[in-house]
Amino acid sequence: MGQRTGTFMFAADLTGRINGASFHWRLPPDIVHAGELFSAFAKALWLPRDFQSGWEGLFACLCDFGWMTDRKIVLVHERLPKLSDVELKAYLATLRDAVRWWDDDDPHQLEVVFPESERERVNRLLGVTPRP
């Protein structure tokens, strides 16, 4: 299946990641601006109308899935968005912090999946040192 490194899951094959047991969303691969990213999240995850576009607003929504009936929410990335490195780092840090926010006693879980081919770049952008 996939291997978890720290906060995220990395998988060589993402075709089997979607099943009927959870809410799965594949991030559109052609996103090039943060505004497009926020709009895609707002539509796909049915974010509240008062969602404030921005990293803090996205983080707040990823830490409160009260409107979602599915317990597990899985965000699947077939590739990283084509954002600038600064925006991509902010996006990855937002996802990392949101995943860490949830614990096993919460009513929801958030899982973020990337292709194995993006592991090195994700780790570099987040300043993660690979383990030997």
TrEMBL record:
Residues 34-112 form the Barstar (barnase inhibitor) domain. Pfam families: Barstar (PF01337). SUPFAM superfamilies: Barstar-related. It comes from the Bacteria. Belongs to the barstar family. This is Barstar (barnase inhibitor) domain-containing protein.
